[in-house]
Amino acid sequence: MDNYLTTNRANWNARVPIHVDSDFYDVDSFKANGRSVLRPFEVAEVGDVSGRRLVHLQCHLGLDTLSWARLGAEVTGLDFSDAAIDQARAIAADCGIPARFVTADVYDAVGALGETYDIIYTGLGALVWLPELTHWAEVAAALLKPGGFLYLSEFHPFPQVLDEETGTMVTYDYFDRGPHVWEEPYTYTGGRLIESYTSVQFQHGIGDVVSSLAAAGLRVDFLHEHDHTLFRRFPTMSGDRTGYRLPEGTPRIPLMYSLRASAG
């Protein structure tokens, strides 16, 4: 636990060259074709971003960040991986998109950014890297202009309690927050890590997220749960990267969620 940040930063720095070259991110087509990697429900729920200042916390390579810029936002991305931020800056330059990218841990974002924003965006798979959400929510509140909002889309914690094969039996403890230490030589893009493949992750329930935002003085406008996800979470699922679902006729469970919380 004492070294979680150092361990995770090394892990993500090692992932960066693999991710940049992967078919999963397909950086070349992102630069060439002007495409967006945002999910349709995200664009619909956030609404018009034209002329609005948006910061993407835990932005990795910045493809989501730059996708918001292509929709008209003035964007900043922040990530603790210096290797990821170097790539994000290079991709932005190759795309001709004005964007600011800053290297910092999310808990240090207020001082590192020195600005406030209309919109905070944080995307899928971000919260598992944070040991606690109280400070995270306080950072979000401090970064928002009056009337601004945080928008979060995340993988739902409920599937984490189910068995890996069928997704039908409760096997794991929903209230086990971690830390969980993983030794994974492959990333989610399929590439193999030859070093720094240890990571430390944490689980957060829906109540943890909502309560932390409320305690920071933000007003939760909505919490939407979704019956699809972006990878084959269980072998019985079918679909593609736009959405994997359980077989038709199977009782549905929440697989992702999205939330908006506004500043006063």
3D structure, described in words:
With 264 residues, this protein is α/β, with parallel strands linked by helices. It has one domain: Rossmann fold (3-Layer(aba) Sandwich), CATH 3.40.50.150. 30% of the residues lie in helices and 24% in strands. The protein contains eight helices and eleven strands. The strands form three sheets. A seven-stranded mixed sheet has the order 3-2-1-4-5-11-8, with helices on both faces. Strands 6-7 form a two-stranded antiparallel sheet. Helix 1 runs parallel beside helix 5, helix 2 packs parallel to helix 5 and helix 7 crosses helix 8. The longest helix is centred in the first third of the chain and has 17 residues. The protein is globular and about 45 Å long. The two termini are 35 Å apart. The mean pLDDT is 95.
What can be said about this structure in brief?
InterPro entries: Methyltransf_12, SAM-dependent_MTases_sf. By secondary structure, the chain is an alpha/beta fold.
| Uncertain regions spanning at least 5 consecutive residues | none
Radius of gyration: 18 Å
* Class computed from helices, strands and strand pairing: alpha/beta
Instruction: State the end-to-end distance.
Output: 35 Å
Nearest-integer average pLDDT: 95
Helical residue percent? 25-40%
**Level-2 CATH architecture:** 3-Layer(aba) Sandwich
Oligomer: single chain
CATH class: Alpha Beta
- CATH fold category name: Rossmann fold
The dominant shape is globular
Q: Helix segment count?
A: 8
Number of strands: 11
Strand content: 15-25%
Pfam family, one: Methyltransf_12
GO molecular function: methyltransferase activity
Domain Methyltransferase type: 56-150
GO biological process, one term: methylation
